[in-house]
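Observation: inputs received (chain + zinc ion).
Thought: call the complex predictor directly.
Action: predict_structure
Action Input:
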Amino acid sequence: MTVGIVIILIYAIILFLGNRGERIERYSNLGLNQETPNHPAIDPTDIVYNGTSNSIGLGEIEAILEKHYPYYTSLQPELREKFLARTQTFIRKKIFIIKNGEGYREMPVLVSAAAIQLTFGLDDYLLPFYKYIRIYPSEYFGDGFKVLAGNVKNNMITVAWNHFLKGNEDLTDGSNVGLHEMSHALYFQKVVIDANYARRFCRNYDDVLTACKEAYQTEIAGQKNLYSAYADTDLQEFWAESVEIFFEKPNELYLQYPSVYEAMKVLLHQDPLNKTHPVLETASFLPQKLARLLKYTRI
Ligand SMILES: [Zn+2]
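Observation:
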């Protein structure tokens, strides 16, 4: 009996150390390290809004979404309720760093709403690795003095507010920096950080990439021109732009690259072409609570 327990303990320790090693290696490949999380520098002029203080109430979030977020107003009432609750929870889990002292209460709400829109068909939507969301009033300098409208680095998602608003102004031009950056974050969260247990998502993401590779070659060869030139940078940018087009030009995506549209639909559990049921039911065959439990015990 005692020998059995000792064997199980040794096995558990080996398993733990093995997984730990794999995780650290994955992080270091990306310049990410869970052991020494990145705490961004705060300038004296920055406004820091810690979501746990929860000074933005549900009614205010609702008013902001109704005024500025058409995806939210297009939803059926019961889905609006879910969207609202998710947005509030997401805000509570994040620290917002608003640069240059130019802060608006809409900032944390609307940037969070982009994450909620993207993940609305998924069970896990909090992108927990990304503790920090940084908002610049306009474009800013990134590594190598590149001028950026948004980027994702370490455990922080950054957007330029003017570009974010521009992306939200026209929801049919296929350009939306909020959805773009959240797509990079979703990829890192699920496919890299959570890869050991987000297996279904990873499989579905592989299907998206397979479809994207074909579309990528077609776009690079100049045979079609649905994507911007920037999407041709690499497949990661192509994925992020595919998300923008999926939500903003679903008809064109479906007509020109039906395999990309279908794979995105399965991955995100959303169907923007279906106006009455844009969010699909979870495809899990297990009751959700059980599925979640099993997911975290690494079956
Ligand atoms: Zn990008």
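Thought: report the result.
Final Answer: The CA atoms of residues 26 and 175 lie 31 Å apart. Residues 199-296 form a domain with the Collagenase (Catalytic Domain) fold (CATH 3.40.390).
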